[in-house]
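Q: Got a minute? One more chain.
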Amino acid sequence: MPYISQQKRENIDLFIDDLIEELETKSFLIGDLAYILYRICLGYLNDYEGHFSVYNSVIGVLESVKLELYRKRVAPYEDTKIIENGAIYSTKEKNEIANKMTEAVEADALDYYMHLPYKINIEFHNDGQYFTAWLPELGTSEFGFKNVCGHGRTVEEALADLKKAKEEWFKECLASGIEIPEPNEQI
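A: Always. Here it is, folded:
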C-alpha cells in the first residue's frame, strides 16, 4: 500500500497498533481476524447502503490486500520452502523436466566423448581411389564392419566424415544405454 502517505499511515497506525496489541494479549484467533475485517468493511459501507459500485470497490480493496499479503509474505515463504523441499510438478511437467535433464546430460556426455583422444587409423584404397578413417578402439560390428568410420577422396574428407559418424554413433549409444569404450593407450 505504498500510495498511502507516511503522515496518513502514522495516524492510522496509532489505533491499528493498539488493536493488534489488545488482540495479542487476548489469544487472537484467525476467526477474530475475519470478524474484525468484516466489521471494518460493514462500518465503511454504512453510508453507502445499496450502492453496488461501492460494494464492488470494497471487494476490490479486499482482493488487493490479499494480493499484497501474498506478494510480500506468502511468496517469499513458498520460495524458501521450494529451496528446502523442492518444487511440486504435475506428471507432465516432471516428464518434461526429466527429458530436458536427460538431453542436457546426453549433450554433456556427447561433448565429453567427442573430445576424447581416440586413435585414428587412415587407409588408402587403390581400387576405389578413396581414404577410410576409422577408430579401432570402438571396435567392429558382429559382421566385421568398423563401428565408426568415414570415407573421402582426401584425408580431410575422410576425417570430416569420420567426425560425423563418430557423433552419430555416440548419440545412438548414449540414447540406447550402450557403454562407450574410452581410448586405450596400448592400441
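A: Residues 13 and 19 are 10 Å apart (CA to CA).
Q: Perfect, thanks.
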